[in-house]
Give the backbone structure.
Amino acid sequence: MFVEKVQSALNQQINMELQAHYTYLAAADYFEGMGLKGFSQWIFNHAEEEMAHAMKIYQFIHSRRGRVELFPVPAPEGGFGSPQEVMEGTLRQEQKVTASIDRIVKLARLEGDYATDSFLQWFVDEQVEEEELVDDLVQKLRLIGDFKPGLYLLDRELAGVGVLEETEAAG
Ligand code: FEO
């Protein structure tokens, strides 16, 4: 049975995914302004994924004959200090999403809503992947620190251009 409390939590989750979408769009713009096109494209793709997550939940609510409720999406905070700060913020955002998904799974089980529990398992797996990907970038950025050539190379890596390809092109 699709319980009102679960439906309400899923509607809140749509809003959270849209907030992530918005935040990552702002981050992509920040990277674009720095000339870091690899980072910009990477996080732009991530923003699109967040929109897809929101739509997945939107459609699930309809498939359960529920109603979607849309809430205001606050403007992203912006004011990014450095690429490392952006990625650390992204990691915190993903951890918040993971905690929220876990809470809804718990609620769905408590309420005997096993269809929602099953639906959300995709998100549980997705969050493991997303946190790992973002954490990987945070670790690399910590390693790079203020070494600009390192940042440049990582940007090329994210753009899908390997160091070897660049060397070959130059040679
Ligand atoms: Fe949809 Fe990255 O959480």
Observations:
- The mean pLDDT is 94.
- The radius of gyration is 19 Å.
- The CA atoms of residues 148 and 154 lie 10 Å apart.
